[in-house]
Design goal:
Length: 103
Amino acid sequence: MDNERLLSQYRRLKNRGLCFKVLRTWRHQAVFGRVEGLYSRTELMRSLEEQKQHAKSLAYQGTKFASAMEESSRQVAEEHEAVSEDMNVSLCLCVCSCFCLFA
């Protein structure tokens, strides 16, 4: 007796769930003209969580990129200073050698 009652309750539950899904899909189809955008709450929450994780990773990559750009610009400035010092030294040597030739 209890088994039959439990079995009939389970069947009614599954039937109500199926009817709910069909009516929900039909209503969405009637309102929006399509059912591609019909998602469950858990799917939407999972998608939101994935988007948050992606945004965090993009922010982290952005900070890493900014620090790499600062480091590379610092290195370029150091190289520019070194090259300009070498140019000044070689220019001085060239000028000094020219004065020595004409002296």
